[in-house]
Amino acid sequence: MGTTRSAVTFANPFILNRDVEELPAGNYEIETDEEEIPASSRSAFRRTAVYFYVNRGRSTRMLAIDPVDLESALSRDAESGAGMGAAETAR
Fold it and tell me: Which residues in the chain come in under a pLDDT of 50?
């Protein structure tokens, strides 16, 4: 099992899905948990969970999200002309 940390930047307020209210533009941290799938010639990973962190003042809220919702939100932000997308990734 491994965890990949990354950050995304939204240039505009956005909605991840209908279960989460509109979030403000800004930088957000993401963690993706993956498990290794053994293969004979190379390793592969399967996503087991994706967490999106929302900082508000002194509190941080962790949302378990569908990666498709994140990709859709990033695409909508990019279509608005100023989206930044993924900023960095570390495993």
Answer: 83-91
